[in-house]
Amino acid sequence: MSAQPFTSESYSGDVRERAWQDVLRGFGLECLGSRSGAPVQATALWRLSSAGVRLGRVSADAPILRSLPSRGGLPLLVLPVESSAVLTVGDERQIVRAGQIILAPRESDWQLQFQRGLRALVLSVVPEAFRGRKAPSLAACPPRVFAAEGLAGILAGTTGAAVGALDRLSDPEWEAVAQSVAELLLQLSADLVTTTADPSSSRAALLQRLYAIIERSIGREDISVAEVAQAEGISERYVQKLFESTGESFSHYVRERRLQRAWHDLANAAEAAVPISEIAYRYGFSDSAHFSRLFRERFGLPPRELRRREATRDNQAALPNGQRGWPQEALAQLRARQARADPDTRRIVAPGGAARPERTPQAPMRHYLPVNAQNIHWGYFSRSLKPLIEIASGDIVTIETLTQHASDDPERMIEGDPGAESVFHWTPGSKAVDRRGAGPMDASVFGRGAGEGFGVHICTGPIAVRDAQPGDVLEVRILDIEPRPSCHPDHAGRVFGSSVAAWWGFHYSEFLDEPHPRETVTIYEIFTATDEPHARAIHSYRWEPQTDPSGTRHALYDYPGVLVQPETILPRPNVLEGVRIPLRPHFGVIAVAPREAELVDSVPPAYFGGNLDNWRLGKGAAVYLPVSVPGALLSVGDPHAAQGDGELSGTAIECSMTGTFRVVLHKKADIAGTVLADLTYPLIETPESWVLTGFSHPNYLAEFGANGQSEVYAKSSLDLAMRDAFRKVRRFLMTTKGLSEDEAIALMSAAVDFGITQVVDGNWGVHAILSKRLFPDRA
Amino acid sequence: MTKHYLPATPETVHWGYFSRTLAPVLTIRSGDSVTVESITHHANDDYERMIAGDTAAEEIFLWTKDEKTLRRRGAGATEGPFTHGAGEGLGVHLLTGPIAVEGAEPGDVLEVRVIDTYPRPSANPAYRGRFFGSNPSANWGFQYNDLIEEPKPREVVTIYELDMGEASVTALYSYLWTPQTDPDGIVHPTIDYPGVRVDHATVVRKEGILSGIKVPARLHFGTMGLAPAEADYVSTIPPNYTGGNMDDWRIAKGARMYYPVAVAGALFSCGDAHASQGDSELSGTAIEISLTGEFEFVLHKKAELDGTILEGLTHPLLENDDVWSVYGFSVANYLSELGPDHQNEILKRSSLDGAMRDAFRKLRRFLMTTQKLSEDEAISLMSVAADFAVTQVVDANWGVTGTIRKSLFAGR
Q1: Which residues of A fall within a CB distance of 8 Å from B323?
Q2: Short-list B68, B66, B61, CA closest to B45
Q3: Which sign does the torsion angle of CA A349, A352, A353, A354 carry?
Q4: pTM (two decimals)
């Protein structure tokens, strides 16, 4: 499983203590003596391996750590960090310095006191982690402190490094690390035994050495008692006796270990292609039928069945952490294919450009773009799309847009609406808009559907702007926004929206309430005909796996436009009762086509605009976008009725709307000396301010090259976005306001407000707001 | 209810640290109001405008070869030899206080209402009645290692004047910081110790800067908070669970701040006043100015918190007429989470990503506890109606606020 962060701050006072003790209980520990009068303040980061290895760091303002009584398993490893602790066993007290290791058998009674509050690394390994290999019995051993040298030093170092990287390791990496620290712990535990004086422990140590010999020769069919006895210089009889003392014969133990290790290999996804007979042979079974019979007797299922079950489980385990964007390997394959085939975009620009309507140059024309399956592209931008219309600078265009979340409540948001029905039409035999996202049409990466949902927004367009050339700037000014009313007879005239707390949300890695994780859809009604336009929640439901008309099951919200079947979900009324959310109608996506790639995922915003998700882009505002392909190719979509700065859950109140825009082309030659000079990013203008858009990666397509559409999801950070926003504001003030660098920096600190745009669109955003009031005497 | 007046004098200020060991300079009761004078620690950037003629400021900043009124500046070493000076500048803000509140105990919450703020006029006859502030672009600023013009790196101090009639601030002049030698002979090549008087003979003034630009005034105290319980001397720089150097300009007239009490008496101090600041405080400082604040204090006892917005509060909370804001930090309580070397460790943890995560958690908890929302409701509401903003990226423990409008809940 992935690394689990914990902080007591997440919980309200009364459950804080319990939540914290739950974390410790996982390790078999408890923590006592919190600072008087205040609830405990604790943090932890831990991770659990499939074999039951649990590793993490814990810190709290409470001083005492002790074990919960339990039996079996390897001793707990506790490693105090940064300050020392006092280990108390019975009446004996011993100081443990930071960096030393304590091995504490679970059966024994001990406690650790941290003067400055608990801060320690903890490793806990269950007996099952070794799959039948015997761990030494440690019931009689007291806890012991090891200086960080030799094997203990290696274990301490490995543990520290592993904890440091805990949240960055991939699942297979973590499994390997977990197994390694478990092995080291097993080895060091043997020392715990050998140093005790009583004869039973030296016998236990000898047994451990015999076990180790068996592990080394386990692949040989003919491993014998004689051989093992000889290696340790003892009699065969004594070997037999030692094994009998554990309640198990030598041959039985060897067979058990062979079966366990075969089980482990069979369950390993990386070895799924290795024939079963070969794995049997690996562990000394030359007859695979014999092996299968023994395996079935031991584990209750044949080897083949185990493999099948594990494969299914792996698939399911992969689900809750859905992946956005292209996986690296798939991108590599795509590049190989692209060398051979043209991209499969729906409409390719006709050579020679679109026909120009006759008209007088000065009078701005009005255009209307209805939304339907022919007028949209879904989930991607492309420089190769043929424009729907060509307009001139200064023209006014009214553009209908649909939210891709209309499918969350088809009755309210699709049914009876010819435009929406046209776009969302999807039956077993026909799918009106097949490509949804920039992925492969054959869905060969994840199998979600054509385009793979690498990009989700329904975009109306593109619109070509006459004479637009790279280097120009396109001004898109929003004159009006009208919501799109429901056409269903039961809801006619009313307006609805949906907000999904989705797997790409900021919250998804850390839920408080069960089940973990989950996706929740909240349906809102939008009220515009009042003095204070607002949204109210109608009901919410948990996402349940949906099977689309093509037969693909979507356990997660991983493909746009899958119509939610009402009978599969359980709407819960009375959500956000009495809460009124003021509207902030805006378009999440306003884009011109990027130049770098043929098909670009619509999710990460960048220099060309796109999924800006800034609610300031509403009526009365404008966005200036740098043109990078001839004709600019403007598209609009992802309408939002309201959104907060951050867009925390992954979506806003997604609601179909129609916008009226005035589109003005600013030619490169005319923009020197204006605020648009040197513009290389989306610049938003509101009546009161300039809003500059910073991103983790301002042009991820250029920065990461061919891997951009994968890397941008992996490497996002507000710190990077803040840095980008800072640099953009500095340049803006220096270039367009003629300030020196020092003046620009002074002004930024005193008067420019930086805010968080979104933390959910792959390429995270920080915007900077410059009040126009700052410059009363300037242009 | 009693009204008190707490002037800034050498006896009523402490410099660069919070401490649970400080004796209160004033003890009040819940419900009392106090007018507190504060003097900016950047006053010596322009002695003539911000100190000369102001007896209290002159005494506080007094530092000659033989005499230094406030020796300790910061939570660092007080025994030499020093790198920067006594206290080592580990914490820089000149704070007035602490004020003890009778009966305050750990677990309680102290409410501080900002009734009003007034600038402190210059007492130099040449500038009498005018208000001045200073804004250094300093070595701890976000820009310092990312400059594009020469010389690199550099620190620049800009002196501003506040016009209360227009409620705006304009720049007067700026100068490049040059190494300054303090009266003890220690050279300060960068701004590394507070209260070093800048010798204007060593700097070159640049006039006519930021011409025509008027920065709207946002009078506020950058640092207000209570003594933490974890250590005897705590640097004033990183904000933390008991408040401190929050640097949020919304903590202004009309705001109510709530702080969890960590030590008996609460021990409130304030200072680090600003004439204006943008969200992020990018260059390391705001327009640092001396202000006098009028505050009202209300103690909320632990037993009375349940069922109020203060239930389960373990971090600073802002309330004004329109909103509630929770304060997220890179590390929620760096004193307890980062161990004994927390002053240095926090510098490695500075991150908006951490602060965003903390703000999310705090706002979720706030909504669930005080508005009785389910987790799913809280998450949906945060996405569609809560605004997350950068507070500062220069105070070691970086800040993100999560703000939610009170009007959302008018119908509940």
Answers
A1: none
A2: B61
A3: negative
A4: 0.81
